[in-house]
Structure to design on (668 residues):
C-alpha cells in the first residue's frame, strides 16, 4: 500500500508532554478542512474539553467520528486505542479463527498488548495504514503520545518489532513442551530431567514458560507480517508527503533538546516542517510595572514575558538553516468551542504561510 | 511542619506527575527540606538528560552519587545500567554476563519487556533503603530515598509495575522480588506518594485519574498533592491598561480564573493534604529552589 497513491498527506505533530500538541493538532486539522481538504485528526488522550469542543466522545475510540464544523472539506476525529488496534492486527495476520482466539485468550498476550513499551506509538502508525486504505481523507494529522522526549516516537516501530522478533522469542518458538505439558528436552533424562524442570519451575514457574511458549508459537505466523509492516511504517514516516511539526514551549532550557530532535529528524531523512514555539507570554509595557494597583503580580507577568522573549530569541539564534520558526502566543484560555479552536488555527496557519510549500504539499488549495 | 515530618518518617518518597509540571524542582525542594529535618536523603532521578543537579548547582551525576550537603545527595539512575548490574550480580561470571548484556536479544528484551525498567528503578530504591547502616557502600548512609519518577505515561505505571509483574511471574526470585516491591509501594508506613500538578483542566483531570488508578491497582492513595505554578491573584475591581497590555491583563485574569476553578475542583475532589505553590520569577536553579522551599515550608505548616 502506498499512501501517496491516494494523494494523502500526513502531518505528525511531535514534542514533549505538556506543550499543547493535541490542541494544536486539532486546530491544524480544522484549518486544513477549512481549506477544503478532507481531514482526519488522530489523537491519543485529549482533554474532556477538547473532546467536547470537537463534539466527539468515547464513541470515537478506535473509529472516526465526523466533526460538525461546517468546513469545505470534511473533518473527522479519532481517538487511538493500542489494545484494540493490536487485537485487529492479530485477527488480520492470524492464519485462521483458531489461531486468532489462541492468541487473544492467552494471558501473556493480554499483558503484552496493553503494556509493551512503545506500543501506543507503533499502533498509531498502524492505524494510519488502515485509514489510508479507506481513501476517505486527503490529510491525516497525527497527534503523538506524550513522551518525555520526542525522539521516543521515532524509535517505537523498530523497538516493537525488535522485541517481538528477537532471538529470545525465537527460542521460545521451539516445541519445548510435549502433549502432556512436560518439558521435551528434559523428558528423556528421567530423574535428572525432572529436576531441571523443577529448577525452572522454582525460578519463574513452569506455567508461565508454557504460556509464553504457547503465545509465541501462536504468534509465529504473524512475524513476517509484522516485520514488513514495520518497514512500511518507516517508509511512510520518511515519505516526502509526510511532514513533522515540532512543538515546544518557550523556555530557554528547552532549546537544546528541541534543536537536538530537529537535527535528528533532518539527519534521519524525515521532513521537518515548521517548529512551533507554543504558549509564549506576551511582553508587558513599562507602564504596567509601575502601576500601584497591580502589585507583585505585574512584576511576575513582566518577568514571564521577558523570559519567553529570551527563549524565542535563543531559538531564532540557534535554529537550523531554512527552518521555519513560528511563535504562538499563550491564549487567555484554551479553546472551548470550534470558533476559538479555529482562531488558534488561523494564528498558526498565518504564521506558517511562508513555509506552506514545505508543509506536506500545498496546505491551501 | 506536621506534613513534612510525616513524610520524613518514611523510607521512600515517590514524586510523580506529568512532564512539564515542575516535578523535578518539587522533588529537590522536598528532599532538601527532609534533609533539614535531620534525615539523610538520597534524591534519585531517572532521566538520561539530567536536570536535578541544576537546582543545587552541582555537577551532573553521570550515574554516581553526588554529595550536595551533609545530609543530601543525588544520583541519576539509568534503568538499563541497573538491569545489567543485576544480570552481572546473578551470573557471577563477568565474561558470561558481558556476553549476555551485549547480545541483541537481551537489548531488545530490556527495551520492550513491560514493567522491567520500572521494576529496576524500584529495586534500586529498595536496595538503597535496605543498605542502611550496612557496611561502607555509598548507599549505606541514607534514611530516605526521594524518587523523581520518570514522566512517561501515567505515573501509575511505575507504581503498579511490581503488582503487574508479580501477576505474570508468580514464582521464583523475580516473582518474589516483584511481590516484595509491591508490598513496599503499598505500605503507607514505608512509602509516601506525592503528586505534582498544575491547576489546569488537563493536569487536574489526569491527577484525579492517577489517584483512582492508584486506588484500583495499588490499593492506596497519595500522601500529598502539590499544585504548582499558580498565577498571582488578579487585583480586584476593574483594571484597565494601555491597548498593548489589554491582552496581557485579560490573559492574567483568565488564567487565574482557571487556576481558581481547578483549585475549587480539587478542594471538592481531593481528600488528602494539598499545598499550593505560586509561579515564581526565577529560572531553573538554586534561586527557584529556594523560593519553592520557602513556599512549601509555609504551606506545610498550614497543611
Amino acid at each position: 500500500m502506498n499512501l501517496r497513491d491516494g494523494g494523502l498527506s500526513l502531518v505528525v505533530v511531535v514534542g514533549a508532554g505538556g506543550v499543547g500538541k493535541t490542541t494544536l493538532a486539532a486546530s491544524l486539522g480544522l484549518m486544513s478542512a477549512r481549506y477544503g481538504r478532507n481531514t482526519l485528526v488522530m489523537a491519543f488522550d485529549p482533554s474532556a474539553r477538547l473532546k467536547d469542543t470537537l463534539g466527539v466522545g468515547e464513541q470515537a475510540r478506535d473509529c472516526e467520528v465526523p466533526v460538525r464544523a461546517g468546513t469545505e472539506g470534511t473533518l473527522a476525529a479519532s481517538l487511538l486505542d493500542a489494545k484494540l488496534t493490536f487485537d485487529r492486527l492479530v485477527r488480520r495476520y492470524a492464519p485462521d479463527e483458531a489461531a486468532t482466539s489462541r492468541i487473544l485468550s492467552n494471558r501473556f498476550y493480554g499483558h503484552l498488548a496493553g503494556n509493551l513499551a512503545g506500543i501506543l506509538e507503533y499502533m498509531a502508525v498502524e492505524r494510519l495504514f488502515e485509514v489510508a486504505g479507506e481513501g476517505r481523507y486527503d490529510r491525516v494529522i497525527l497527534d503523538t503520545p506524550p513522551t518525555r522526549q520526542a525522539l521516543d516516537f521515532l524509535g517505537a516501530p523498530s523497538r516493537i518489532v525488535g522485541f517481538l522478533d528477537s532471538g529470545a522469542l525465537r527460542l521460545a518458538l521451539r516445541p519445548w513442551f510435549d502433549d502432556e505439558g512436560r518439558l521435551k528436552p528434559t523428558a528423556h533424562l528421567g530423574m535428572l530431567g525432572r529436576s531441571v524442570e523443577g529448577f525452572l519451575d522454582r525460578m519463574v514457574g513452569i506455567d508461565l514458560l508454557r504460556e509464553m511458549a504457547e503465545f509465541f508459537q501462536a504468534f509465529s505466523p504473524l512475524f513476517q507480517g509484522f516485520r514488513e509492516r514495520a518497514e512500511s511504517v518507516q517508509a511512510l514516516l520518511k515519505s516526502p508527503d509526510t511532514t513533522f511539526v515540532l512543538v515546544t514551549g518557550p523556555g530557554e532550557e528547552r532549546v537544546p533538546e528541541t534543536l537536538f530532535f530537529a537535527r535528528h529528524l533532518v539527519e534521519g531523512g524525515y521532513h521537518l516542517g515548521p517548529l512551533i514555539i507554543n504558549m509564549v507570554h506576551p511582553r508587558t509595557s513599562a507602564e504596567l510595572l509601575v502601576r500601584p494597583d497591580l502589585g507583585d503580580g505585574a512584576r511576575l507577568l513582566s518577568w514571564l514575558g521577558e523570559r519567553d522573549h529570551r527563549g524565542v530569541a535563543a531559538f531564532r539564534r540557534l535554529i537550523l538553516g531554512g527552518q521555519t520558526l513560528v511563535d504562538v502566543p499563550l491564549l487567555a484560555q484554551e479553546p472551548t468551542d470550534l470558533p476559538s479552536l479555529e482562531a488558534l488555527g488561523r494564528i498558526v496557519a498565518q504564521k506558517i504561510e511562508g513555509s506552506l510549500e514545505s508543509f506536506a504539499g500545498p496546505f491551501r488549495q | 511542619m506536621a506534613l513534612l515530618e510525616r513524610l520524613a518518617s518514611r523510607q521512600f518518597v515517590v514524586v510523580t506527575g506529568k512532564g512539564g509540571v515542575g516535578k523535578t524542582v518539587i522533588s529537590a525542594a522536598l528532599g532538601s527540606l527532609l534533609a533539614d529535618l535531620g534525615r539523610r536523603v538520597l534524591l534519585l532521578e531517572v532521566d538520561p538528560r539530567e536536570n536535578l543537579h541544576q537546582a543545587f548547582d552541582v555537577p551532573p551525576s553521570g550515574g554516581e552519587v553526588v554529595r550536595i550537603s551533609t545530609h543530601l545527595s543525588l544520583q541519576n539512575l539509568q534503568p538499563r545500567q541497573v538491569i545489567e548490574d543485576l544480570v552481572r550480580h546473578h551470573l557471577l561470571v563477568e565474561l558470561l554476563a558481558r556476553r549476555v548484556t551485549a547480545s541483541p536479544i537481551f537489548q531488545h528484551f530490556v527495551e520492550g519487556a513491560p514493567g522491567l525498567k520500572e521494576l529496576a528503578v524500584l529495586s534500586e530504591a529498595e536496595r538503597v533503603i535496605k543498605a542502611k547502616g550496612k557496611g561502607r557502600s555509598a548507599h549505606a548512609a541514607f534514611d530516605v530515598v526521594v524518587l523523581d519518577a520518570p514522566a512517561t505515561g501515567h505515573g501509575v505505571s511505575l507504581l503498579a509495575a511490581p503488582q503487574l509483574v508479580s501477576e505474570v511471574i508468580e514464582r521464583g526470585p523475580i516473582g518474589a522480588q516483584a511481590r516484595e516491591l509491591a508490598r513496599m509501594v503499598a505500605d503507607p508506613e514505608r512509602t509516601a506518594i506525592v503528586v505534582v500538578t498544575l491547576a489546569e483542566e488537563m493536569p487536574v483531570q489526569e491527577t484525579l485519574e492517577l489517584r483512582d488508578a492508584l486506588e484500583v491497582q495499588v490499593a492506596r492513595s497519595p500522601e500529598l498533592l502539590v499544585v504548582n505554578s499558580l498565577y498571582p491573584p488578579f487585583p480586584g475591581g476593574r483594571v484597565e491598561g494601555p491597548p498593548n497590555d489589554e491582552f496581557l491583563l485579560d490573559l492574567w485574569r483568565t488564567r487565574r480564573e482557571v487556576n481558581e476553578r481547578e483549585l475549587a475542583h480539587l478542594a471538592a475532589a481531593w481528600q488528602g493534604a494539598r499545598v499550593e505553590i505560586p509561579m515564581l520569577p526565577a529560572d531553573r536553579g538554586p534561586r527557584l529552589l529556594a523560593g519553592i522551599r520557602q513556599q512549601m515550608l509555609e504551606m506545610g505548616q498550614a497543611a
The mean pLDDT of chain B is 87. Chain B touches chain A through 64 residues (CB under 8 Å). Residues 3-302 of chain B form a domain with the Rossmann fold fold (CATH 3.40.50.300). Strands of chain B lie at 12-16, 41-45, 65-69, 72-76, 144-148, 191-198, 224-230, 273-278.
